[in-house]
Amino acid sequence: MSDTGRKGFGDKASEALKPDSQKSYAEQGKEFVTDKADKFAGKVQPEENKGVFQGAQDSAQQGKDNAEGQGESLADQAKDYMGAAKSKLNDAVEYVSGRVHGEEDPTKK
Prior knowledge:
This protein has one domain (9-103). Helix 2 (25-44) packs antiparallel against helix 4. It has helices at 9-17, 25-44, 52-67, 74-100. It contains four helices and no strands. By secondary structure, the chain is an all-alpha fold.
């Protein structure tokens, strides 16, 4: 079970089980954005306000991040997430625009 506004463990697990090659462009974009938003929310939500499962999930994510050497400040991470979200949103707009106008699937090029 996840806290309100947070991505649940079941959602994360089901996303991880399905290979990216079987996901649509929209699914991959949504997953990327929701993962980044949840990661950010986990860093700003006080520990005392987290449920048991959400706290465990955030601790595991923090350990993974530390192991990968991410020593960025929270502000820097927020800028990175916003930039990545804007990029994915632009990609999605281009994809939808291309499909509406009958262009070939840009993800298949």
